[in-house]
Amino acid sequence: MTSRTAIVTGAARGIGAATARRLAADGHAVAVLDLLEDQARATADAITDAGGRALAIGVDVADEAAAAAAVERVAEELGSPAILVNNAGILRDNLLFKMSADDWDSVMDVHLRGAFLMTRAAQSHMVEARWGRVVNLSSTSALGSRGQVNYAAAKAGMQGFTKTLAVELGKFGVTANAVAPGFIQTEMTRITAERIGVTFDDFLAGAAKETPVGRVGQPEDVAAAVAFFCSEEAGFVSGQVLYVAGGPRS
Predict the structure, then answer these.
(1) Which end is more exposed in the chain, N or C (fewer Cβ atoms within 10 Å of the end residue's Cβ)?
(2) Strand partners, 33
(3) With contact defined as beta carbons under 8 Å apart, do 110 and 62 qualify?
């Protein structure tokens, strides 16, 4: 496998951290980006301790100047980025009539504005190299999820964003795909359990019962799908949304 430089946003923990570790295991140098710089550094340290190359950068991906500066730092210290995984995300759940404008804007800023800014900054390196992989994290919530009108809209937007990137960047050897996880056992789903007032164990058990494969997903399940889209072999796959949800989704 050709070793390349990858950027993973929201990589301090959960799906992002698992993805960073997987891409490093596949031989890539990985930039671990997150607002939580200390935790991002822990992820990067785990990669370097295992013999890989990694760089931790604390960044707000919704900040235009900070996103551009982060990409340029990656290029200078790890090499020109050829892989970008837009994973950064937040939850601000509430029913529509209770949701504040700030809750709406915050989710849109991190998910959509952040993905836009990071991709715009990174794509020039990919276009110049005539090779690139962009993988965006969507969600089954894009199909509709009670109490998540902001998150669902953002994740649906990620799918449209992905398909348009595929159209615009394909002629430069750059593919764009999305992974849409179902129920994944992370801190984010723990927060959801707390919000609805059930124990996390009961929440996991209920989700497993509703999943055809009979279990909840793990961050590594999502990382494996991302790794495929980032591979050399996936060069003829672009503009696709892969549901990693333990069963079919529309």
Answers:
(1) C
(2) 9, 57
(3) yes
